[in-house]
Write a sequence for this structure.
């Protein structure tokens, strides 16, 4: 069981809070247990949208596997308010020192800055308060125009909807990109990426669509990419004809089902080779009967 503690401050933005909470709650519904807690310095918090929210005053016991998330709050061009007490800052520092992960959404980066967790690390926040965050915390490396950053278990996001991207990233790191893609699909959002890096996963790269037939087909291919999978079998499994599946799949992903499977195999093979496997061993591991096919695919990508 992984515990996710949301630290709430007066004026917290609902989407900064609800977006990540929904991601972890959805992942829990898929069998990846998360326990969500809400902590504040007072028992009742009024959000920026006027909704009162109840919170616990006592912090739960946390392990290094657990996560603290600081959602952002309404600002007037300055991330420096509201007041955050020393006990809260001590809790953030202590959790990170024990090996835990801390994250922020939007102006919540200010809390991490006050705790000294941004010093010498890359971070980001909402574009309205980036300059002020950099001024208040000159040892921080504030990165502009990205969705989120991650640096030594300190993760910050740009704000509002990007908190969903941050949470999906954490789910992908902990449980794999296929789980993150499934969560994104359930939430009817795109599985997006960090703005300053290339897409890292074939699974996520080709999940930015809303075609349910194709998502169901991808679920099957993702789970069985290293085994033979014929188009008639795949089409029957999702309840459509072969031509219909091919047309939908190509339109949604830019690839045929076979090319998608090959891309998954190639990505996994490259990972194995990078960790010391021979080309022949990697080819067999990902399902290629003939290693020459893997060599051809690697050659095409390098060309």
């Amino acid at each position: 069981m992984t515990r996710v503690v949301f630290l709430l401050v007066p004026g917290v933005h609902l989407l900064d809070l609800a977006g990540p909470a929904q991601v972890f709650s959805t992942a829990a519904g898929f069998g990846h247990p998360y326990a969500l807690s809400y902590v504040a310095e007072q028992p009742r918090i009024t959000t920026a949208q006027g909704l009162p929210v109840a919170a616990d005053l006592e912090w739960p016991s946390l392990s290094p596997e657990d996560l603290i998330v600081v959602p952002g709050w309404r600002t007037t061009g300055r991330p420096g308010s509201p007041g955050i007490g020393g006990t809260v800052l001590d809790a953030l520092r202590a959790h990170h020192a024990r090996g835990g992960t801390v994250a922020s959404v939007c102006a919540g980066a200010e809390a991490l800055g006050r705790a000294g967790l941004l010093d010498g690390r890359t971070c980001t926040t909402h574009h309205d308060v980036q300059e002020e965050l950099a001024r208040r915390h000159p040892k921080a490396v504030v990165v502009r125009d990205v969705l989120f950053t991650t640096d030594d278990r300190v993760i910050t996001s740009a704000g509002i909807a990007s908190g969903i991207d941050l949470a999906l990233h954490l789910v992908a790191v902990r449980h794999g990109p296929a789980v993150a893609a499934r969560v994104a699909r359930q939430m009817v959002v795109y599985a997006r990426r960090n703005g300053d890096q290339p897409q890292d996963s074939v699974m996520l790269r080709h999940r930015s669509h809303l075609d349910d037939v194709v998502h169901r087909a991808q679920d099957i291919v993702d789970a069985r990419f290293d085994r033979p999978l014929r188009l008639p079998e795949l089409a029957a499994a999702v309840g459509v004809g072969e031509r219909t599946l091919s047309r939908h799949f190509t339109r949604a992903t830019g690839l045929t089902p076979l090319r998608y499977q090959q891309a998954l195999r190639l990505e996994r093979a490259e990972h194995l080779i990078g960790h010391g496997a021979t080309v022949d061993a990697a080819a067999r591991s990902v399902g290629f009967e003939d290693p020459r096919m893997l060599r051809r695919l690697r050659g095409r990508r390098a060309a």
